[in-house]
Amino acid sequence: MDITLDELDKRILNALQTDASQTNQQLAERIHASPATCLRRVKRLTELGVITRQVALVAPEKVGSGLTAIVEVTLDHQGDEHQLAFEAVVANVAAVLQCYRVSPGPDFVLVVQVADMAAYHALAHQVFAAQKNVRNVKAYFSILRSKFETRIAV
Fold first, then answer.
1. How many CB atoms lie within 10 A of CB 145?
2. Of 104, 110, 5, 15, nearest to 68 (Cα)?
3. What is the spatial distance between Cα 66 and Cα 71, in angstroms, rounded to a whole number?
4. Is the pLDDT of residue 1 over 80?
5. In this predicted structure, what is the pLDDT of residue 2?
6. Which residue from 30, 31, 56, 74 has the highest number of Cβ atoms inside 10 Å of its Cβ?
7. What is the mean pLDDT of residues 133-150?
8. Hey, what CATH topology would domain 7-47 get?
9. What are the residue ranges of CATH 3.30.70.920 in the chain?
10. Rounded distance between C-alpha atoms, residue 87 and residue 31, angstroms
11. pTM of the model
């Protein structure tokens, strides 16, 4: 379904991506619209699925999850049912923050956030080694996050 966004919708989305904690009144002032219009537009964008959720971004190192791993996973069998089964496994693992089916190359790329290397090892054993259909796992460990952005240009 194509969704047409006008300039007001785009201003709302840009403002919320910068700070979703602002009140409707603050948002309305920031984007130069009435509070009622702003509230109606945000509700519409949410109902259309343009706004999927509003969250707080947490500094992982401040809460004991200082190790980020980017993990490539290749399956033995790549049929849709096998990919869905793997996705179901990782969907229930809190440390797996993101899971992407990719092509070409590995079948999946995961973004994993854990406390330390011991926690990664435990996760790798639980999620990768215990799955019969996982053929290959290649992990890259972040030594510095020089950019992190959640904002999408609209």
1. 9
2. 110
3. 16
4. no
5. 84
6. 31
7. 96
8. Arc Repressor Mutant, subunit A (1.10.10)
9. 60-141
10. 39
11. 0.88
